[in-house]
Amino acid sequence: MTIHPGEDGIAFRHGGTRIPAAPDAVTGTRRNTTLGDVATVEHIMSAFAGVEITDAEVEVSCPELPALDGSAAGFVAALDAVEELTPTEIALPDREVVVSDNDAWIRVQPGTGQWTYSYECFGVTQTVKCVMPDDYLTGVSRARTIAHAHEVQALLDSGIGQGLDIGSVVLIGTDGYGNEPRYPDEPARHKLLDLAGDLYLAGIPARCLDVTAHRSGHTAGVRMAALLASSRCP
């Protein structure tokens, strides 16, 4: 994978095809976010959001982005050579926008980067609050992919998450972590990391939004990005 400076938003190149990082280019949200034929773009999109990169071309030679250590930290470290936030006219929603699916939901409104995510783990609700992008590097980017102990082999057998190992996931057992977490609430922090990547498909800087979410996944995140990117905000 090679990251090049871009001139017209963020896009991925694979097999000679340019795939814009936009909600209408999403082709899958099962366990990851897939753009065209490039899977697992959410971590690098989160890194772009966290360090405020608006223009980049990501050239890939295989149909899934590298897992690295299961977080966005490696992508953040690779972005030093890419230009940062370009001042542009940004269309923001003019009211609160909500996406819900049973007891999972996302609420977004124009704001100052106040992000909150809650996630139930071990029978306890973990709640993470951060200011984006200020808290991203230390409080979000290092949180690893969540893996339930009984699902690890099934994930690998399905072809999802190639390159992952026990050190690149936060392993969740029936009554506690199966390995050493990087944060006491690492699962909630990784879910916020994923959400930041999915919402950045709308092209709106994280600092311009106040976001509150509970148990949402990639499908809800992409739905919200589509609403934010369009004029169909209810």
From TrEMBL:
<dbReference type="InterPro" id="IPR004463">
    <property type="entry name" value="UDP-acyl_GlcNac_deAcase"/>
</dbReference>
<feature type="region of interest" description="Disordered">
    <location>
        <begin position="1"/>
        <end position="28"/>
    </location>
</feature>
<keyword id="KW-0479">Metal-binding</keyword>
<keyword id="KW-0443">Lipid metabolism</keyword>
<comment type="pathway">
    <text>Glycolipid biosynthesis; lipid IV(A) biosynthesis; lipid IV(A) from (3R)-3-hydroxytetradecanoyl-[acyl-carrier-protein] and UDP-N-acetyl-alpha-D-glucosamine: step 2/6.</text>
</comment>
<keyword id="KW-0862">Zinc</keyword>
<dbReference type="InterPro" id="IPR011334">
    <property type="entry name" value="UDP-acyl_GlcNac_deAcase_C"/>
</dbReference>
<keyword id="KW-0441">Lipid A biosynthesis</keyword>
<protein>
    <recommendedName>
        <fullName>UDP-3-O-acyl-N-acetylglucosamine deacetylase</fullName>
        <ecNumber>3.5.1.108</ecNumber>
    </recommendedName>
</protein>
<keyword id="KW-0378">Hydrolase</keyword>
<dbReference type="InterPro" id="IPR015870">
    <property type="entry name" value="UDP-acyl_N-AcGlcN_deAcase_N"/>
</dbReference>
<dbReference type="GO" id="GO:0046872">
    <property type="term" value="F:metal ion binding"/>
</dbReference>
<feature type="compositionally biased region" description="Basic and acidic residues">
    <location>
        <begin position="1"/>
        <end position="11"/>
    </location>
</feature>
<dbReference type="Pfam" id="PF03331">
    <property type="entry name" value="LpxC"/>
</dbReference>
<dbReference type="GO" id="GO:0103117">
    <property type="term" value="F:UDP-3-O-acyl-N-acetylglucosamine deacetylase activity"/>
</dbReference>
<keyword id="KW-0444">Lipid biosynthesis</keyword>
<comment type="function">
    <text>Catalyzes the hydrolysis of UDP-3-O-myristoyl-N-acetylglucosamine to form UDP-3-O-myristoylglucosamine and acetate, the committed step in lipid A biosynthesis.</text>
</comment>
<dbReference type="InterPro" id="IPR020568">
    <property type="entry name" value="Ribosomal_Su5_D2-typ_SF"/>
</dbReference>
<dbReference type="GO" id="GO:0009245">
    <property type="term" value="P:lipid A biosynthetic process"/>
</dbReference>
<dbReference type="GO" id="GO:0016020">
    <property type="term" value="C:membrane"/>
</dbReference>
